[in-house]
Design brief:
The chain contains three helices and 29 strands. It is mostly beta strands and 409 residues long. Among the domains are: 71 residues, no CATH class; 77 residues, no CATH class. A five-stranded mixed β-sheet has the order 1-26-25-24-23, with no helix packed on it. A hairpin with a 4-residue loop joins strand 9 and strand 10. Helix 1 packs across helix 2 and helix 1 runs antiparallel to helix 3. The radius of gyration is 23 Å and the shape is globular. The protein starts with a helix and ends with a strand.
């Protein structure tokens, strides 16, 4: 055996047996240091890129030398997430859409564009139709909190609410867009977009389309308002209508829109492309923005967001990812898929990096701890994350739209 092969075997075995130490070596000797902060009042501790998979690099090097993983004792991927390479199971062979955790908290609902029907699927891949009714060419779907009803939008502008438990359908106005369900009542919110900007409003109605109430004028700013109903029923949307602050592009004010026209304090966020995700109790808001201080990569932040604490305790979570790649499991615990390697400016052109492989991280918002949970086997992209009610399974969509499952315990 050549000296070069001996060195490869030694390095390979060392990386696999002491994987965490290999990550540290990567940062010490290969990773360029993070650029200095450019915003003085922004806490940028923990900001940086994540390393690529070291095991994949070792495997590639071994293949070049004509060796196999067994030559250095590389272990198979774990069947349950333990902080390393972890197996996943493909539950669907084709792309599915509009996924959501089902009412039982253990399986998943989804839309099949091939036959225009909605189904539920369990961890073993057993599929059952939610209804025999067909919905051809669905454009978007918004589910209620129990995953029993959905607002279904079609490309021609028509909208319906379908109750899968009662097999009942209600037609909504075609000029309504961007729906969301109330987390506490049988209500929906939408943008009512008349031809005349003076007649454009955020509206709330019952989920049968009756009792319509206008709660906020939109004018010509409808594209700057994101519907996002808080679990505590206080905030229904966020408006990015403020002028630039003295901090320039690294400071933006986002205005919470109250259901009853409350005058909430604006949120000062650090960059562009604000997107947010409420904690289950509505007391915290996790969001992602892109700014020069993070090399124009997306960065996760958290902030208190009740009526009395809006904007307090703002802090960076130190993970470069988009908030729609996250999911909450409790009032203080969230899981996020984080791309293994995002180059500078990735936050300004997300479409170029949609298929980047991800690692799964767990965030404890109480202690601030951020823990690597798993790296999916096979350089897998993770989107639309949902975790079963018993925290034992993670469901997600890969870059091809197929539904996959990973065991967490």
């Amino acid at each position: 055996m050549t000296e070069r092969r001996k060195k490869i075997l030694l390095v390979g075995g060392f990386v696999v047996s002491v994987f965490g130490f290999a990550f540290a070596l990567y940062f010490m000797f290969f990773k360029a240091p993070a650029p200095p902060a450019t915003v003085e009042d922004v806490d940028t501790s923990g900001i940086g890129s994540l390393p690529s998979s070291l095991e994949a690099q070792v495997r590639e090097l071994l293949e070049q030398e004509g060796l196999t993983p067994e030559d250095v004792g590389l272990q198979e991927a774990d069947t349950v997430a333990r902080g390393g390479i972890t197996q996943t199971t493909e539950l669907t062979s084709t792309a599915v859409y509009n996924t959501v955790i089902s009412e039982d908290g253990n399986s998943m609902n989804y839309y099949n564009s091939g036959d225009g029907r909605f189904y539920t699927i369990d961890e073993d891949g057993n599929v059952s139709p939610l209804s025999d009714k067909q919905f051809p060419e669905v454009d978007s779907v918004v589910w209620n909190k129990d995953s029993e009803k959905a607002v279904i939008e079609f490309p021609d502008g028509s909208n319906v609410i379908y109750d899968f438990s009662a097999e009942k359908q209600v037609t909504l106005p075609s000029h309504w867009e961007d729906f969301d369900f109330s987390p506490v009542q049988d209500e929906i919110i939408a943008k009512s977009l008349a031809l005349d900007p003076n007649n454009r409003y955020l509206v709330v109605s019952s989920d049968d389309g009756s009792r319509v109430q206008s709660i906020q004028a939109l004018g010509e700013n409808e594209s700057k308002v994101d519907v996002n109903w808080s679990p505590n029923d206080q905030v229904v949307a966020f408006a990015s209508t403020a002028k630039a602050t003295s901090g320039g592009l690294n400071h933006t004010v986002i205005y919470p829109v109250g259901k009853n026209k409350e005058n909430f304090k604006g949120l000062v966020v650090e960059g562009l492309n604000f997107d947010s995700l409420w904690s289950p109790d509505g007391k915290l808001l996790m969001y992602s923005v892109t700014g020069s201080y993070s090399n124009d990569k997306p960065l996760l932040w958290a902030v208190k967001a009740t009526s009395s604490s809006m904007g307090d305790d703002r802090r960076s979570l130190g993970l470069n990812t988009w908030v729609d790649k996250c999911t909450w499991t409790s009032a203080s615990i969230a899981y996020c898929a984080v791309p293994l390697d995002l180059p500078p400016n990735a936050g300004l052109g997300r479409a170029l990096y949609e298929k980047e492989p991800d690692a799964l991280y767990k965030i404890n918002l109480t202690t601030g701890a951020v823990t690597l949970v798993a790296i999916p086997e096979g350089d897998t992209t993770m989107n639309n994350l949902y975790i079963s009610d018993d925290d034992s399974k993670l469901y997600f969509s890969n870059s091809y739209g197929q539904l996959e499952m990973m065991r967490l315990k």
